[in-house]
Structures are given as structure tokens and as C-alpha cells.
Sequence to fold (318 residues):
Amino acid sequence: MTVSDAFKPIDSSLTPRYAEIATFMRAARTDIAPPLEIALAGVPLDLGASYRSGSRQGPSGVREASRLIRQVNPTTSVAPYRLCNIGDVGDAPTHPLSVERSVDLIQQFFERIHAAGAWPIAMGGDHTVPLPILRAIAKGRPLGLIQIDSHADTFDVFMGTKINHATFVRRAVEEGLLDPKRIIQIGLRGTRYGDDDIVFGDQAGIRMVSMDEYEELGRTGIIQEIRRVVGDGETYITIDIDGLDPKDAPGTGVPEPGGIMMRDLQMILRSLTGLNVVGADICEVVPSLDPSGITCINAANLMFELTCLAAVARSKRR
Fold:
């Protein structure tokens, strides 16, 4: 398949960054239809968050911040728009008063993307968001998961509900959407409610890397461990922005001190070029909690890194 001129992004060296309507990374605004190959999508849902809300504004905040993004990765030299037809397909529909209805609507939206033959790169939204995406794209073929997060999100019930930002990993494993032996969680460090908070992960065989272990392994060690766990199989990446240290991402609902540095996460993702990445998301960005805007800027840069990974994998598949 030849990359279509219809998917050319806006060139910020010709059109000022402050001009034109904001799209993710200045990508072309497009419909969900072939020959689209990678769909950039917003998911404005925060009804699954249990503390500070506002991540429903994440997609709009990151679209504005991503005006800064150019077109070529400075480390890997990957130029995703030259490899694939990439477009911003807008936001998934949500219900402002019902998390259950929202999850159904989001799943249907990503089923359309999947049916069109495109791979999703999503911007949430709280960390409920990966569940309906995985329900749409992982039926019949459990995926591996790379999860950057300060929390494991493996509760069975949280605040009396089974679908929220603290349960998506458990639901996805139970539903056969994720292979627990190919899940690696990186950056875990938040204080716990009790001794059994991570028992499910232990019993299921999930590889859980605390920040203490992360520091012992170092950047090179964690890259090797990611590749060992997920192997060559199809893999999904989810980044809860609170996995970053709060000085790099203060705009999030549940900040946890002592997290991953932005530079480390950039280089970890770049070192995974060639991995079989078939989709990804970034969640828990709350622009209203960060007047400086650095959270949205960092989220936009991470979205570019994820797009580079997916574009390389998609072009190899093609």
C-alpha cells in the first residue's frame, strides 16, 4: 500500500503552529475508513476516576500541546507519516452520566476502527479506557501488555464497582483479552490499601516491576526485561501518565512521587522499535491540574513515540 497524499500532516515549517484547527500531532483529520492504517483518537471519559476528575479534557489538551510535534524521531529516525496512512479520527462518543454506557459506546467506536483495518493510538480519559479498546481489538487473540503506571489496576471491585480506572487489567485478563504471562507493569510505587492489593497479579503471573526494582535494573535492564516478557507476539502499550514523576506530569488525578523520568520513558520506548505493537493509549492527563502545560506536552511527545512504534510494526506487517 502506498501512503496517500490525503494523509499528509500539516507541515509546521510552512504553517505556523498556532494556525489551523488542532489535531493530534498535526495529523490529517480523517474518517474511519480504508486506507487508514493508524487511527489517532481521543476518549474523553473520566467517570471511572475515583479522586480528581478532569481527564475528559485530556484529548483536547493534548491536541493543542501536540502542535509542537514535528515529523521525524530524533533518535530512531522513524518518520511515521512516511510509513503509514495516519489520521486523527476525532473522539469516541461517551455518555456524560454513565460509565457503563460510555464503555459500550467506546467499544463500538474502536470496533469500527478495527473493522476498517486500522490500529488505534488513543488519548484518554481515565484508565478505564483501555478495557473497551481491548474488547474491540483483542477478541480471540489475547495480547501482551506493556503498562507504565504507578498502580497495578488489578482490583476486582473498587468503590463498589467492577469497571473503573483501578480494575481494567483484571477485567481484561478475566475476559481473555490479555495474556497475563505477557504483561509487564513498570513503575509501581503508590501506597496500598492493604496487603492483598497486588495478589491477583502475583497469582496470574503478571511481571510487576516496582520503582525500587526499576532503579536496580536501570534503563537497559528494563528494556531487556520488556522484550523478554512480551516476546515477538502482538502487544498493546498503555501509559498512565502518573507513571511519570509528578515533576514531569503534575496534571494527573493521582500523582505519586518518585516516578519514571520523562527522558527515561522516551528512550525506553525508542529502544522498543521493531516490537509487534498493534495499539496503544495514554490516560489520566488532567490539563486543569497543570497550569504550566508540561503534562500535555509530555503526553503529546509520548503519543508520538507510540505512533512511531506502531508505524514501524504496521509497515513491517504490510
Remarks:
- The radius of gyration is 18 Å.
- Strands lie at 28-29, 38-43, 86-91, 119-124, 143-148, 178-188, 207-210, 235-240, 277-283.
- DSSP finds nine helices and nine strands in the chain.
